[in-house]
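tool=predict chain=A
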Amino acid sequence: MKRAISILLGVCLAFSLCFAFVGCDDASQPVVGCDDASQPDEGGDTEAEGVDFVGELFGEDLAETNFYNYCPSIMMEGEDTMHVWYCSNRTSGNITDYIAYRKGTKNSEGKWVFSEKQIVLEPTLLTWDTMHTCDPTVVKGTFNYRDTDYTYLMAYLGCESQDNMDNQVGLAVANAPEGPWIKCDDINPICNYIDGDRFNGGSNSWGYGQAGMISADKAGKVILTYSKADSAGGGCYIEYWDFADLDDPQMLSAQYVTLRNDGSLRPNGTQSSINNPDIAYDPNTNRLYVVSHNTYESGAGQDPTIIPSVSQVLYVQLEEEQEYIGELLFSGEAYSWTPVGYISEELTGFPRNHNSGIVTDEYGWLTDRGTLRVVTTVSCLASEGGDRPTPWPYLHSYRLHGVEFDIS
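tool=predict ok
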């Protein structure tokens, strides 16, 4: 599962702060914490009436079930339709990752009403993703696989192990957001860790996962990022692909290009790193935005320590003349990220804030001038979860929570 990389990369975070360099307007964002009884439950009155984007979007009954929702990919279709793919379990109390989907529709009062949870991708027995399928990211474009044209491309994490090691990244295609989704078995895993030349067998063999994508040409060319813990160490790779012909995909960039950490800062101003990122392109300012975990060390030591209390939002200013979006990141030239703000307990009301996704259009491009919307995964502490068996005291509280940043 996606959260396991935090152990390997040293991102055990527990200090809850919010410091925004650019317009993180806390006062305008209602804080709802672990003790608040008004969180929307599955099928409850709150969902029927709709919810504001800033706050919890949806989720099963926290009091009586053990479900988790985390790691979203969020795509807007116009102004009134929101597609959300995310990781969840199918059966209460069972830790097996599936990719779930909900469609959000804005009602006459401007609130969001979400459809029922639908499982759209699941593990395939006796294959590279036999144990878990999670961490989706989806873009629209034109893709052909086995002589059939498809409109949507998904990258996702799969693995064969119960201990969340030896993760790899695969692709799936569909002609509708809800599917059916077809795994690209002929080429999966597209980011092959186990058979690659940077395989690091052993107890710390996390591998590749946590992908992010943007369309570079609104057709078949895609910028792909993913977290990695291989023989070269931890961090994030970024790749430029032509996925128009998925029977013969072409990597257009060099392999093993690593995202630079310059400018990624902890809330106390010291150097941090980028891991578990989602990316988005702003065509209005020619910036590439990223939301990622922030390696801010915790002194509290309260469970869960495998997920961070703070996530960060950053951007890099791209060059005016570029052959494709993000060319600077592949050029070998130095570049530095500019901090936008932090997602923390002060902003959301929850002590853990992790596995976030940026709200974009169908191509991974920002939709709103001056506003960056993010859906983050929030979690309570284990001490707040009652007498549930481990790890459910905190895992059952994983829910998707919207926040906004002023980037004007």
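The two ends are 36 Å apart (CA to CA). The first strand starts at residue 55 and ends at 56.
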